[in-house]
Amino acid sequence: VPAGGGYGLPTLYFLLQALGIAVQRSRWGRRLGIARGSGARVWTWLVVIGPMGWLFPPVFVKEVMVPFFQILKAL
User: Which of 28, 39, 49, 60 could form a disulfide with 3 if both were Cys (CB 3.0 to 4.6 A apart)?
Assistant: First the structure.
């Protein structure tokens, strides 16, 4: 709401996290090879890093985070 956009995207990001865990722990996830080892690492990167734009929509970064960091003199 403070950014005036990106509504619901962070919620979708965290719902994807829950779905990713459920799939990884399922019988289907074990068959795909995403339950352990390098397959699990790749799966985690896809589910966590891939949709990072949903967690920090560009409008949120521009309207909230950048001004905040400017106030802190961090930028």
Answer: 60
